[in-house]
Amino acid sequence: MSHPDIDQLEVLLLFGNDSLRQGIKIHHDARPGLITAARKLHQAGLITAEDGGYLTDLGFEAAEHLSHIQGIIAAPN
Hints:
By secondary structure, the chain is mainly alpha-helical. The protein has 3 helices and 3 strands. The longest helix has 18 residues, at 57-74.
């Protein structure tokens, strides 16, 4: 997995669990990788704005899967 892919995952994880009603804003002075990641997620139809906004239905589904994966990875053995 490349750094740009990881940046996109990081942006998706910035959305809260109640992601359909909670938006985010990636500021112009954020890490360049996050700015690019947000643009790519917007182009892919996962978020509503190039600088964050809200998750689309597809984005919510992706974030939900990512949250499940994060929970599995973080679970104690």
